[in-house]
Fold these 3 entries.
Entry 1:
Amino acid sequence: MRLPWLDGQRKTIVTIWALWAVIVISFQAISYERVRLVRPDYAVSWSSWETELGNNLFKDYLNEDFLNQQVAWDSEYYLGIAVGGYDDPIAGTATDPDTNKEIPRNYSFFPFYPALISVVAVPLSLIRLNAIATATLAGLIITLLGTLAGLFALDDLVRRRFKKVDQSSEDAAGLSTRAATYLLIYPGALFFAQIYTEGLFIGLAFGAIALALRQRWFLAGALATAAALTRAHGVLTAIPLAIIWWNAGGSAAFSSALRGMRTRRIRPIFFAALPLLAIGLPIVAHLIWRTSALGEGWARLQDFYFGRGYLSVTDSLAAWVTGAAYALEQGREALVTYALDRISLILALVASLALLRQRQVEIAAFSLALIAASGLSGDHQSTIRYMAIVPALPIWLAGLGRRPWFDRAWSLASALILALLLMLFSRDFWVA
């Protein structure tokens, strides 16, 4: 059967994505059989006790053998919410120091990804795996397909840019292929093949931007709303959508709608309200979540348990300083981890500013918002993962990749760092 939307360029992207998925998952399985890392690990302040022998022995959601290399750390909560709900006692609780109330630790995470896992797990239950194994398979399918959707949206963004500057389709396809490849070989892209939200998020957020550029506001709003319920960064999709609306003559359409209200003409009112609805929906969804019992629990846990918050500038600067001091004290493993996080943030910032200079304002603004939300959230850790969802980074790198020396150098550096991260993700590193 011929699929009209699956042209030659998208077939190339599917091939790259499929090979990448096979390589990452296979490498994780092989490295587990062949590599024995030394414990405990002092890469960050909390990793020493997290990597003690048997530390995760009683964490049921991390000890299922099926696809176990695809789960670690936060995967426990996504699987726990999907299988046992937010109040699942297996996840445990944390005590709020201000109120002495116990808050289920599952409240730390947004609902859309676990909800999708629950839905996809229903037909997968016919395979007759146990509940945790079924949820793990469902979660991996979702994050891999979300990554593919993100690659398609990235391809659309790149090729649309070339149409505007009247470049050849061959140049556009080449840049699109590079952008997709650089996104997947970026070291933080490891999380696009794990039980984490990054893969799903880029599919939703990048997809919302691509659809808005096509003026398909209903679908753009739906994806942006889903992104807002997938992770805290999702509310920021309102920024590129608003810029796209304004650049497409939003103010004129709004004025037309106001005139239509006076003359009671429904059509201009509807077409003016639709993009505004798409822009507002992720904000409304985030506010509804934030003011719910789950959202209140999320905010408290982010504050006292994870050390994060909205634009915590003072805490963020303090975390950068204390993180540097810790890295200098502990030596190589901590220094490498700290350096990779800082380098990833600087690269993403440079890429965003470069796209801003090239007047790709919607992508640059969204990327800068993601960087600010991540880099100024308090705790400085996991930055290399957070920068994986910044769209400016693969687009900017793709432009640089036209230079053959850069293509080879970036590929080699990414492969080495990715190999290190894959080994650190290995179950043998942190489970007896």
Entry 2:
Amino acid sequence: MGKPGGGRAEISPRMLSKFHVINYINPSEQNLKRIFETLATTKFHSFPEEIKALCDPLAVATIQLFNSVSEQFLPTPAKSHYVFNMRDISKVF
């Protein structure tokens, strides 16, 4: 659930009182890099050294692509499917 706007409606306090609201902050770029670099390193542990060396650039490039897509493709009422999260980064890995 995101903030109201861009195709998202505000949920009434009466409705919210029926649920537990859990909030988390998005991880920093440094944390994202560490998460996905670790995933790539684990996946490529049996590959040659020149492939293993690409784990760091792969994580950095994927995060940069995610950030630029998130900034350029903003959700609107006509295109409410333009909502991006960490699941989209994980699909690369």
Entry 3:
Amino acid sequence: MDQQKSKLMPIGQAAKKAGISRQSLQYYLMVGVLKPAVISPTGRRLFSENDVEQIKLVKKLNSSGYPLRAIRELFIEDRPDMKGSKK
């Protein structure tokens, strides 16, 4: 587990690696498009390399004209914790 934790990065570093601003990443989190890999006991949001790739995908889809609402719905379908939560 410690090896996995060492690969996690804070929000600023994840945003930089994904090529977006920290504010954009915070907005994606706020609207539910993404969620961090881990939230530490102190409330820090930590991201994995997979999260960075997902952030890049969100950026690319949004830049191509897909609204964040549609992107969120697409990602919710893939989340095991969200399956069956559709009305």
